[in-house]
Every structure is written in C-alpha cells, then in structure tokens.
Amino acid sequence: MSSANDGWEEIEGGTMRMPEGYVGNLTADHQDKLRLLWDSFFKVCDKATGTKMENTGEVEDWGQDDGAVKKRLNAKSAVKNSGIEQDDSAKDVAQKRAEEANMDKLLKTYGPEALRNTFWSLCKQDHPDTTMLRFLRARKWDVDRATAMMASTLRWRLDTGVDKMSENGDLVNGKEIPKYIDQQATGKVYAKGCNVYDQPVCYVHFKKHLIWGQPSPSMKKFIITQMESWRLLFVPPNDKMVILFDCTGFGPSNLDMPNFLYVLQCLQSYFPECLAVLYLHNAPWILKQAWGLVKGLLDPVVRSKVVFTNTTEDLKENIPEDRLLEFVGGDVDMKFTWVGPEEGENDLQKNKAERDARWAHHRKLSDEFEKVTRRWVDSKGKEGDEQRKILAKRLRLSQFDFEPYWRGKTVHHRNGDLPPGNPGIVRWEYILKDGDKVRQIVGQRQCKKTLVRELQEIEAGASVEWAEKHTVEMIKGGSWGRWDTCDDLPPRPTGFKDGQLVFDGAAPAAAATETANVAAPAASENQATSDKTSGTTLVPSDNRTSVNANDETSTQPLPSKQSRDTGTKKSTTDYRKTTKDPATPPKKRSLFGTIKSKIAV
User: Fold this and answer.
1) Euclidean distance between the first and final Cα of the chain, in Å?
2) Across all residues in the chain, what is the average pLDDT?
3) Are residues 153 and 236 both part of a single domain?
4) Domain limits at 397?
5) How far apart are CA 413 and CA 155, in angstroms?
6) pLDDT of amino acid 94
7) Domain of life of the organism in this record (predicted)?
8) What's the pLDDT score for residue 58?
9) CA separation, residue 222 to residues 165, 238, 267, 563 (Å)
C-alpha cells in the first residue's frame, strides 16, 4: 500500500495464476487448435458471397411490446415459448444446427470485407488470439464448432448493429431508444470495482426493474450496450466480468424472465467466455422457483456459473469486503451517482477525415496481422510468432487511438473510471465505512503508455520478452510514471546492445504517442521463446503496486463530475488464481462435416 499526496491510498502488488487455454499459457494442443481456427476464419472470409457491407440493426427481431407480451412474463411461459430443448444433449444438437444455419446465412448475406471489419471490431483492444480462444474454450476445443459459433456471432453483430449502438454512446442512444437512460440513471445497473482477479463487478438491482417500465426492444438494446461497455473494463489477461443481481425486495412485478434469459443468451452465444460468475444474492423463493423452471434452457457451462448467495461470507472469497458494496455487507460506503451525457462530448466523431484515416490505419495493421498469421499457420508456428506479438501490441495501441473518434462516451468515460490521458488504465476508487480512501489502478502493463514505450524499445532492437520484463521492473521500481497520462514517457532509445537500451542524447518522448511506423526488428523471428506445454503461469498483478513511489504528483485525481463515493482498503487477500477444471482440448477432435464442406477451398 502506498500513500498519495491527495489523501488516497493505492493497492499494492500480488500475483495471480493464468489457467491453461489463455494467451500466454497454451499447450501444444491448444496452439494447434488455435492455428486451425485461424485457418477456418480465413476460409470463411474467402467463401463469403454476399454483397452487404454492414447493418444498423434493422434485421434483428427486437420483439413486440404490447399487453400480450407483458402477460407472458413468467417462467412457465418463457420455457414454453422458447422453443429450446430442455435436455442438454438435444439442446447441443439444436445449437449445432442453429450455428451452422447462421453461418450459411452469413456467407450468403455479407461480403468478405464485412466479415473482416466485424471481426476486427469485435476484437477491439483484445489480443486477436484472445477472441479466437474464447470460441475454442466455449466449444470445448472443437474447431468446427468454434468456427460455426464465431460465424454465428459475426452475423448477430452485423444484424443487430452492435457497433452502431457503441458508436452512438449514451448521448445518441438516449435520444433514439425509449427509456434507455432510465436504466442507468435510476441506479438499476452499474459497475463498481473488481474482484480478486481484477474482473469488473457489475451490479443489477432487481427491485428497480419493473416489467412494464420500458419497451422490450429498448431493454434488449440496453443489455447489448452494457455488455459492450463492460468489456472496456477488462484488462488482460483477465477477460471476464462478475455480475451480481441484488434480489432484495424482489417481487412478481420484477420478474422479467425473458430479458433475464436474454442476458444469459447473450453471454452464452454472443459474448462467449466473458462471464466469470453471476450471483443471485438474497433471492426469494419465487425467483428460485422460476430459476428451477428455466435453467434447463441454458448451456450447462453457463448454467453452472449462476450461483445463489445469501451472506457476505458467500461473496467475500471472490470479492473482498474492502471492494464489496455496503448493501451486500461490504465495507465500501457508496451511493450510486449517475453522470449523464452532455452535448458535445462526442465531437471528435465529427472529424470524419481523421476518423477514417485512423480506421484505415487499424485495418492496415490487421491485414498485416492476418498475413503474418497465415504464415504462422502454414509453418505450424515456426514462423511469424514474434511478429504476431508485436502486431498485437500495435493493434491494441491503434484501437486506443481510434476509440475517441468512433465510440460514443459511456458513464465510465464521464466518471473517470477510464482515464482519457492513458487509455487501457481502469481506475477504481473506494471510500470505506471507516473513512479510508483507496484507489486501485488496473492495467499498467497493458495501457497506452506501456505499449508506446515497449514498441519503441522493440524498434530499437529489444525482443518482446525483454520489453515486457522491463515494464515489470519499472513498475516495481517506481519509475513507470503517472497512471493518468502518457506525457512522462522516458527518452526514446536509439539502439539495443548487450541486453541494454542505448540512448544517444534523445529528448524524452513526451508527445510520442503515435507509433504507426514501429516495425519488428529484422532478427526478431529467432527471439521467440518456447511455448508452455502445461500447468499455470504466474502473472504479476501490476495494478496493486505504487504508480510511482518517487513522484508525489503521480496520483493526482482526474477531474470528474462525479464525487468520489466509493472505496477499498488495504487488502490482505492472496491474489492468486486457481482453476479446478483447466481448459483441456479433447484427445480426438469432433468433426463438424457440414462446416468443412462450406469453407473448403
């Protein structure tokens, strides 16, 4: 724990374990499956024969909103009208058929460029392999099933116009979608803090949701935009969220089963592997009874992540009391304050020339990543590995630079959770019942400032591994700098010799935050390290270290319209992640023959 000069304390370091099946901890079988899925993706894109480039949501059936619909909002009706098999085996077969049909429609409706644009928009700031691995884990490492699921997700994103809603942000969505702002302004839904694995914790207050309080189409669109905005709170290697439904005061008028199931449908079908756990806290018997009726509609893996809890003890192993809100027995004394959108907050979107140029640059990088990945696939991983790592960093940085010209602001931009001066940082602040104020900075190893510096070092001749280790050393040593700005970058190196950076009197690269021309070192292909074959990898949890122990101004708070009203304290938690069931690919890959016939070349 370190103290800042503004009265806030910052949470210190720790380690956590990355389970198998994630970027940085892949077995040989995992890597084989990853290469096969990339190859399938290329074939899917090459086989697309449609002509449509994009959609803004007109295709999606958002449902009707009339009295008849309202009368059907009960568990038995939800099951009866779902058309979903209750038996898990039958449900799995139906799911295969549906995903195959969706892929067929995707290929006939949209063109190759639409598929690629949508895939790279789906990736956002994630490592591209992270996106692929989500589908592989969700389909138990069956490449054919993962291909179909990915295609189904791309089609859904195109049909629903997901990216258009993200582009609109709260300002435009609030004008175009009835009752949209009410879902947040009432304090019904919000994210605050993270658990022991740095996964954001998202709260939903059931009693504030009335089944007749908003049109059903509005609720579905709101659910989608929340999923997208919560993804901004993920910091690699963590790629999941915790959702806590507060069921205190729940009654029949709150039992909106279709929309509750839509949340789970989105998580299992269109945002795979994004849910860590969903808590139903303090649920009354009526909700437990309803859950017993509808749980058979869900995939067994997603179903297993829905957990009923009643006490603070049930939660605090995952969410420490010093990060848990007071209404569920935690120490954080917070009353939700809504920071609404303002005219002009998205004015950068009006600069169409700059926006188009930044997206063109991003797609140029993604095309290069695809080109190198094809070589990596064809060589069975022997070529292109180091270049892919470098390009993944450049893509993340490019997305950061593109975001303000494309994405409409969310509440997390307006309240300071996402500092504009250093994209990739997530700032959580907690005010505790005893008056302590704790600031948690997540994402130092993956933020814009770190990426700029690492890419400069790689351009000078360092390997990816060396640059990443240097980041860890800087954070631990207190020389990393301020968390809220990129203006304090160290001097730009001019070379790399004998394991050390070389500087020829270069001035500090304070404003050098654009790295469009950073290229891989010529000899980088031989610098790739051997892959892990089993076990788990210890990953430093950088966000619990002092941002800069030597700089008294390093923790100045960002300007915010929201009063500081949340908190967490010195935590004694052992920040290590374990997994009871690490992702393991099947010994024999299941063949989804019809998929192969559609994408065969």
Assistant:
1) 58
2) 83
3) no
4) 353-407
5) 29
6) 73
7) Eukaryota
8) 56
9) 9, 24, 14, 25
pLDDT class of 599 with cuts at 50, 70, 90: low
Gap between the Cα atoms of 149 and 106, Å rounded: 12
* Strands 241-246 and 537-540, sheet pairing: unpaired
Claim to verify: residue 306 and residue 194 sit in the same structural domain: yes
* Token output for 71: 């009368």
The pLDDT assigned to 2 comes to: 57
Query: Is there a single domain that holds both residue 191 and residue 238?
Result: yes
Least Cα distance to 160 among 224, 86, 243 occurs for 224
**Residue 485: inside a domain, yes or no?**
no
Strand partners, 9: 3, 438
Q: Collapsing DSSP states into helix, strand and coil, what is residue 123? A: helix
Determine contact, residues 453/518, Cβ cutoff 8 Å.
Answer: no
Closest CA to 394 of 345, 339, 333, 455: 455
Tell me the mean pLDDT in the region 144-156.
95
Residue 195 and residue 309 in one domain: yes
Which among 178, 331, 328 is positioned nearest to 248, based on CA atoms? 328
Interatomic CA distance for residues 443 and 237, integer angstroms: 10
Q: Name beta bridge partners: 429.
A: 439
Q: Which of 487, 473, 203 is nearest to 335 (CA)?
A: 203
Q: Which two tokens stand for residue 220?
A: 């579905």
From CA 578, how far away is CA 595, in angstroms rounded? 35
Q: Which residues of 15-30 are buried (b: 16+ CB within 10 A; e: fewer)?
A: ebbbbbbbbebbbebb
> How many Å apart are CA 239 and CA 343, to the nearest integer?
32
- Hey, which residues does 16 pair with through a beta bridge? 539
Tokens coding 520: 């891989």
- Contact by Cβ (8 Å): 279, 243: yes
Percent of the chain with pLDDT over 90: 67
Tokens of 584: 């393991």
DSSP per-residue letters across 64-107: --SHHHHHT-SHHHHHHHH---SSHHHHHHHHHHHHHHHHHHHH
Q: What would the mean pLDDT of 498-524 be, rounded to a whole number?
A: 55
Q: Residue 198 corresponds to which tokens in the numbers above?
A: 């740095």
Closest CA to 265 of 376, 372, 152: 152
- Alpha helices per DSSP H over 407-478: 411-414, 448-460, 464-477
Rounded mean pLDDT, 200-227: 95
Cα(241)–Cα(233) distance, rounded to whole angstroms? 9
Mean pLDDT of 172-178: 98
Number of separate domains in the chain:
3
543-577 residue pLDDT tens: 332 223 223 333 333 333 333 333 333 333 332 33
Q: b or e along 260-293 (b: 16 or more beta carbons within 10 Å of the residue's beta carbon)?
A: bbbbbbbbbbbbbbbbbbbbbbbbeeebeebbeb
Instruction: Please check whether residues 270 and 394 belong to one and the same domain.
Output: no
Name the token pair of 172.
Answer: 């435009």
